[in-house]
Amino acid sequence: MKSGSRTLFRWTFTLLVAAGAMLASRAFAQTTPAAGPYKIVNSTQTMGTGGIDYVYADNDNRRLYVARGNQVLVFDEDTLQQVGAIPNARARGEAVDPISNHGFCSSSPVVMWDAKTLETIKTIEVQGGPDAILYEPLTERIYVLSHRAPNVTVIDGKDGKVAGTIDLGGAPEQAQSDGEGHMYIDLEDKDQIAVVDVKTLKVTAHFDLAGKGGGPGGLGLDAKNHILFAMCHEPATCVVLSAVDGKILATLPIGNGTDGGGFNPATMEAFSSQGDGTLTIIKEKSPTSFEVEQTVQTKPRAKTCTLDTKNNRIILIAVERAAPAPGAPAAPAAPANPEQRGGRRGGGDRGGPGPLDIIVVGR
Q1: Which terminus of the chain, N or C, has fewer Cβ atoms within 10 Å?
Q2: Helix residue spans in the chain (DSSP H)
Q3: Which residues touch 233 (CB under 8 Å, ≥6 apart)?
């Protein structure tokens, strides 16, 4: 074969291979199904005693924390099997500093432990009534929230020393950090989002929900696009607003009794867990376009949640009432909607003996 003919043959062969690969790729894409709807993909029950509030996923160490009664229960995040407990910790929430590998819970005093060994390191005296808790990555500090003063106690994640306190001007419920110096905290009794400078520990702004939603419980944050998702009780609404200036971008319906929320940047979805036994998934189609993508049936009272970032799954918890002894009167059912009871709208479940449900929702 002449040199020119060989060159033409090679080019023709290369083009045929490329075309075949392209056709095969298109055929594969056409036969590969799109991601299916969310559903319960795993669940487990653990008997115990005491109320619950928040659930927290330590995704680096693949552990799941649930405060119940006088201890913090620790589960394997993948198998849902219990692997330990933090004793003497009557808490509501949990957080882990992934740099120091120190865990903390919102108890009084705050308990600090080694996230690898689960051994208690120390206790930290704080004021107010510890409730929600959050790790802030820029300063490597733990934020302990309280409905009464001081509204925030800030703790160094490395040594457990109190770095300061913050007056928010209202009762905080849930918080989110953008990792760039801003902490956003919803104020349940003021229908506002407080913005905190994490370096100065000062409030720099209050974003008002302007009557679009009241009693914000859960909170999600798209840090890349600077968008907040405030999950509200009155009415049952997600108020979407700019994290830059507080401008309201949209409102969307959610279920009743929200007490937890978040945002998954991997799927561009916000989510809200509700006491009426639903999980609302909101799709961010663009920074200006949002829609309710799905409402997942979970279990009544499963109103707090956390995100498994490895598997893009949402984990919820609930406590079921134990059956009364023969002849004993049944305990009154707790309302699915927290507005029907006094006190904190999204208050923790004060349940007695009964199974703890861990529910995993994914695709």
Answers
A1: N
A2: 3-31
A3: 213, 214, 215, 216, 217, 256, 257, 258, 337, 338, 339, 345, 346
Q: What is the CA radius of gyration of the chain?
A: 24
Q: What per-residue string of b and e applies to 50-84 under the rule 16 or more CB within 10 Å gives b?
A: bbbbbbbbbbebebbbbbbbebbbbbebeebebeb
Q: Under 8 Å CB-to-CB from 187, ≥6 apart: which residues?
A: 168, 169, 170, 171, 172, 173, 193, 194, 206, 216
Tell me what pLDDT residue 17 has: 41
pLDDT given at position 95: 98
Contact, 80 vs 71, CB < 8 A? no
Interatomic CA distance for residues 133 and 145, integer angstroms: 6
**Could you tell me if residue 195 is left (phi over 0), alpha (psi between -120 and 50 degrees) or otherwise beta?**
beta
Q: Which amino acid is at 327?
A: G
Instruction: Name the phi and psi angles at 4, rounded to 5.
Output: -65, -35
Give the position of tokens 């100065």: 200
Under a CB-based contact definition with an 8 Å cutoff, are residues 62 and 89 in contact? no
* Dist CA 318 CA 275 (whole Å): 9
Say which residue the tokens 């949640």 belong to: 305
Q: What pLDDT, on the 0 to 100 scale, is given for residue 349?
A: 64
DSSP character at residue 349: B
Domain boundaries, the chain: 51-323+339-362
C-alpha distances out from residue 151 to 56, 154, 291, Å: 21, 10, 33
Instruction: Kindly state the tokens that stand for 106.
Output: 């919102």
Burial of residue 329 (number of CB atoms within 10 Å: 0-12, 13-18, 19+): exposed
Q: What is the mean pLDDT of each run of 10 residues along the chain (363 residues)?
A: 45 44 43 72 96 97 97 98 98 98 98 98 97 98 97 98 98 98 98 98 97 96 98 96 98 97 98 98 98 98 98 97 60 43 50 90 97
> Is the four-CA dihedral 247, 252, 258, 263 of positive or negative sign?
negative
Tokens standing for 160? Answer: 């457990």
Total number of residues shown for the chain: 363
